[in-house]
Amino acid sequence: MKYLQEVWGSRELLLNLTSREVRGKYKRTIFGQLWSLANPLALMLIYSLVFGVLFKSNPLPGDPSGLDVFALWLLCGLLPWTFFSAVVSTAASSLVGNANLIQKVSFSRIVLPLSTVGSSAYNWGFEMVVLLVAVSIAGGFVLPWIPLLLIVMVLLAVFAAGVGLIFSIANVYFRDTQYLLGIVLQLWIYLTPIIYPIQLVEAASHTHGGLLGTPVTILGLYDLNPMVHFVALFRELIYDNRWPDGVEWLICVCWALAALVIGMIVFRKNERNLAEAL
Amino acid sequence: MTPAAVRVDHVTKSFRLYHERNQSLKSAVMRGRRSVHDDFLALDDVSFDVPTGSTFGLIGSNGSGKSTLLKCLANIYHPNAGSITHFGKIAAMLEVGSGFHHELSGRENIFLNGSILGMSRKEVTRKFDEIVDFSGVEQFIDQPVKNYSSGMYVRLGFAIAINVEPDILVVDEVLAVGDAEFQEKCFHKFEDFKRDGKTVILVSHSMDTVKQMCDHAAWLSHGKLISAGAAVPTINAYLHSLSAG
Lengths: 278, 245
What we know:
The complex is a heterodimer of chains A (about 280) and B (about 240).
Chain A: H1 2-9, H2 11-25, H3 35-54, H4 70-97, H5 99-104, H6 111-138, H7 146-173, H8 177-190, H9 198-208, H10 218-222, H11 226-240, H12 246-271, H13 274-277
Chain B: E1 4-18, H1 25-31, E2 37-51, E3 55-59, H2 66-73, E4 81-86, E5 90-93, H3 106-116, H4 121-135, H5 150-162, E6 168-171, H6 180-195, E7 199-203, H7 207-213, E8 216-221, E9 224-230, H8 231-244
Parallel strand pairs in B: 3-7, 3-8, 5-6, 6-7
Antiparallel strand pairs in B: 1-2, 1-4, 8-9
Helix pairs in contact in B: 3-4, 3-5, 4-5
């Protein structure tokens, strides 16, 4: 509790560090903030071409929205994913990157990884607004779902923060972490139904049945990935425009809280040694 | 006897010296559970009081543990044994301008650096003019700090740090910044500090500086406290040991 108070006490610093990231990032570029849209747009074009056109990945149309646009369907999963992966990878290097500051000034260290959540969230919010406008133009009715959408976004940010805290500490002790993380994140995106519909996994799971004679199915293992559930929530709210399943909500809340609590505990345990370990 | 502003009580700090410190997963796995290291005692059972309102100098040769002690005082390192108690708000100036963002303007950096040092936005706003005035970079305040000369850079950093207004200020060898005029300004600022009954703890290799500014001093050698007390006898004893050795 006392620790939470300390973190709350440094909220102003957190805000300032976040705005340092946001304002410093696109300085001296001609397009400025527009660059934050370039990356998801490029990914959207590539995946739409490869998986939408060449592989003919054909997700079910939105129910009840009736939307049937691969690019929009893709972005509903891709934008939350790029946010998550940006937070985790920048948080992982946040302590090592600010080693000089940590060794010279005493302040609540947790603001360094947390500020990466803030600055990535800023870009993500920008991207989501564009997506919502595009979905509305295509005929989706997203306006009433925006409050719920905000809640899911906060949940994902909390989850990302927890995972980021753990990796930031791991990277102090093992610099291999940041390279390993690059591979893990690449693998992780393919383990999540972002560029292909989850129905493909369900079908494969159905044909194979229990693995090695156990009742464990492919889908059962697949469901252990928390991002599966987050992506499902985002799709249902933005693309399908329907109230998501209660169990799905519960799973996401549990993952978010678990990640944050474990992340905070790990961080708190190692915080005092950071100046020496770096 | 004036009450203590800082009480350093049997402080011991050791560092691990690793024989193979390549922070990789492989080496951790190869080592197994045990890690190969020796302990190095940087501070060995150091105790002294810093009286309130004094200017306190830490002296000693290189590697005597001054900087480690300073970092312990600044709450950056944590002692393995013993404790440091301070009565009042403490602020440390171990390096000026840490945390400046090079692409941001001087103005933005004042707010950023101020909050890293623990000032609220309101406080910074209130002291903004004073900080800018003290640093003497008015003309360039809206320029990115990467265009500042190194003198301007440290002057701005120093001006922010000095305006934190702590009860106890911990200073590393940062006084050697800026031109003679700016140094003069700094000395005046420290004298103001003293007049307000605040405590300054500083590390310096320049015995003239210590003699000029400090009324108390502690002499460290190889992590051990040799003597602490009034400045002049301590400094003389230290200088004597140098010429004798």
